[in-house]
Each structure stands twice: as structure tokens, then as C-alpha cells.
Design brief:
mainly beta; four-stranded antiparallel sheet; 1 helix
């Protein structure tokens, strides 16, 4: 017969075991695939003429059953062309240059930026794909966004580095830039 004290100890152990298993499951799924924008310079209170940088990072390292990361894929960056002007792009594209593609620069869109490598990429944490630079051309609004998302163009979907067939569905984000309508900053440009 199990004593009341032993029953209580077994219950506490079972609760800890269940809690640890549940927490492990949450942690394993908390960092799924992602393709994100991260500010590389200040993005608050910007005036006409100010320039800011956004890093593009990918991470396919924490997908259960997919230790091979991704073979590659593509993405688009959307922005309000009435407020921001694409100013510069520097690629740090990992992997095979034959599987890489700089984006087409369109009004309000950097379309189909792509990376790839048959050995797999982004298998051990975040990888810098590149940095995009924008210039503030108008401050008629108090804020604006730059969004990153999947492409329907040449870059194609993200493909598993494990089976070379499965499409991966990373999360994407957007960055909000706050603007100062009363400010002309370092550039000296004036808006008309």
C-alpha cells in the first residue's frame, strides 16, 4: 500500500514530469522558421532625408524533423513609395551564387530576393541575407511600415533542406518607422 506521503511525492514528480514535457514541447516549437527584418540603425523620429538600414535575417534551424534547414527560397519587401525611397542594397547572400538573386527594384517593392544552397542554409540560427537602405522622402504621415513576405515571383517558396521537396512556411514581419513631420535632418533636403 502507498502511504499518503509517498502518494504526494509521486504526484509532485508526475506534475514536474508533465510540466517539463509540456515546456519542452513549447520550446521546441517556439522558434519555427522565420524570414525577418531587423533594424540596423535608428528608426524613430526620422525626418526628410534621413537614411536607415534594415537587415534581412533568415532562420530555419528549429523546425522539428528538418535539421537540413532550407535549400532556399525568395521573399519580397513592400514599402510606401510616397514616403520612402529605396536607397541601397548590400547582399550577404549565403550559399551558392548560382542560386541567389538580388531583387527587382520596383516602385514600393523589392521583388523576388532569393537565396539558396544545396548544402542547406540557416541550419544553426539566424543568417544575414543582406541589408537594405531607405531614405525618408516625405513625412506627411507619423509612421510607415516596411514589410517582408513571401514572393509570388521568381524566388519561389522556401524548400526543405531535408527532403528537397517540402515547402516550408516561415513567419514574416514588418517594421514600423516613426516619422517627425517637423524635422529636416542631416541631409538638408527639403520636401516640396
Amino acid at each position: 500500500m502507498i502511504s499518503r506521503a509517498n502518494n504526494h511525492a509521486i504526484s509532485r514528480f508526475a506534475c514536474k514530469l508533465i510540466g517539463t514535457a509540456a515546456l519542452s514541447g513549447l520550446l521546441a516549437t517556439a522558434h519555427a522558421a522565420e524570414v525577418v527584418l531587423v533594424p540596423a540603425s535608428p528608426i524613430d523620429n526620422l525626418g526628410v532625408g534621413d537614411v536607415f538600414d534594415l537587415n534581412v535575417l533568415i532562420d530555419f534551424s528549429d523546425i522539428p524533423g528538418n535539421p537540413g534547414g532550407t535549400l532556399g527560397g525568395g521573399f519580397d519587401l513592400d514599402f510606401d513609395a510616397a514616403v520612402l525611397t529605396h536607397f541601397a542594397l548590400s547582399s550577404s547572400i549565403p550559399g551558392d551564387p548560382q542560386m541567389a538573386r538580388d531583387p527587382d527594384v520596383l516602385e514600393g517593392l523589392l521583388e523576388s530576393w532569393a537565396v539558396g544552397n544545396f548544402d542547406g542554409i540557416a541550419t544553426a540560427g539566424q543568417v544575414l541575407v543582406g541589408t537594405v537602405q531607405f531614405r525618408v522622402s516625405s513625412t506627411t504621415a507619423n509612421q510607415t511600415q516596411v514589410s517582408i513576405g513571401p514572393t509570388d515571383s521568381l524566388g519561389g517558396p522556401w524548400i526543405s533542406g531535408n527532403d528537397f521537396v517540402s515547402e516550408l512556411a516561415p513567419s514574416y514581419n514588418q517594421v514600423t518607422i516613426t516619422l517627425d513631420p517637423d524635422s529636416l535632418h542631416s541631409s538638408g533636403f527639403e520636401s516640396n
